[in-house]
Amino acid sequence: MDGSFWLPEGASTLAAEIDSLFYFVTWASAILFVGVVAAMAYLAMRYRRRDVALVPEPVEPNKFIEITWIVLPTILVLIVFNWGFKLFIDLSVAPPDSYEVQVRGSMWNWEFEYPNGTVTAGELHVPVDRPVRLVMSSVDVLHSFFVPAFRVKQDVLPDRYSSVWFQATRSDTFQVYCTEYCGDGHSAMLASLVTHPQGEFEEWLESAGVDEDMPLPELGAMLYEQRACNSCHSLDGTPGIGPTFEGLYGATETLADGSTVEADDNYLRESILEPGAAIVEGYQNVMPPAYGNLSERELSGLIGFIEEQ
Ligand code: CUA
User: Fold this and answer.
1) Around Cβ 242, how many Cβ atoms within 10 Å?
2) For the segment 251-266, what is each residue's pLDDT rounded down to a tens digit?
3) Which of ligand 1's atoms lies nearest the C-alpha of 180?
4) Which residues line the pocket of ligand 1, CB cutoff 6 A?
């Protein structure tokens, strides 16, 4: 089904039926609304009080009209309930042969772990024409995983697993959003969802492992994007939610308590692992402590990358 004013083009097996239900409810509501308002306006005009002295005749109830306005809305509501309940079940129960990917939400980043242990951040790769089940959890606050093109949306909680499934119908790149307000970087908590044709997905998965020989600053540049450092730290001197990386390395920073510190390797390392330890003057202590799981090599990569700016 093509996109419309109301909905983007669907790209999952269930999208068409969800859209049909959506349009049914929308148009039924629109028709009823117009009908009720038109009848109300007409009757108000037709039976308005024309004279202050006028005393209206008592009206006898009309059984036919009363039964009609009870039975018709009941049927309408039952249709929507049955249709919606069936779709809800279809959306909730993933087929048993689904490909399973673990999803971790954190402020403000999406991380995906595949069955072979490969981890990607900010990018989810899945095969097309095969059911995919996402098992999701959060390391901090409530997030919500939303892929408009697949018509799926599910809360991601810190204290329990939630899941969502879909089967993509074409290979393309889709947008993933976080749709639960989760702090300063909420609107930048995005990921792209890439669907690969069968066979190509397996190829991607094999090549996705981190290249051990990648030079450190290059690894840092990749992490800067993947771990979403870029949503708070600019590279062009603009202050964001956090200080810019431009000219940061080796600079003398004034901290919130008035003391000064040189932004050397040790300071940068501490600031990544323990963001609250030393806050630069003028900034809030909002950086999430989610970077403690970076490896030594990844830390060196990020520091090397910052040094280059
Ligand atoms: Cu995560 Cu909003």
Assistant:
1) 21
2) 888 888 888 888 888 8
3) 2
4) 105, 108, 143, 178, 180-182, 186, 189
